[in-house]
Amino acid sequence: MATVDIKKFQVNLNPTWCPGCGDYGLLRGLQTALAKLDLDPSEIVIVSGIGCSSNLPHFIKAYGYHSLHGRALPTAQGVKMVNPRLTVIAAGGDGDGYGIGVGHLVHACRRNIDITYIVMDNQIYGLTTGQTSPTSDVGSKTKTSPDGNYEYPLNPILLAISSGATFVARTFSGEPEHMADIIVKAIQHKGFALIDDISPCVTYNKKNTYQWFKERVYKLEDIGHDPYDINQAIQRATEWEDKIPIGIFYINPDKPSYDQLDPVIREGGMFAKPEITEDEKKEILNQFL
Question: pLDDT confidence of 2, banded at 50, 70, 90?
Answer without folding.
Answer: low
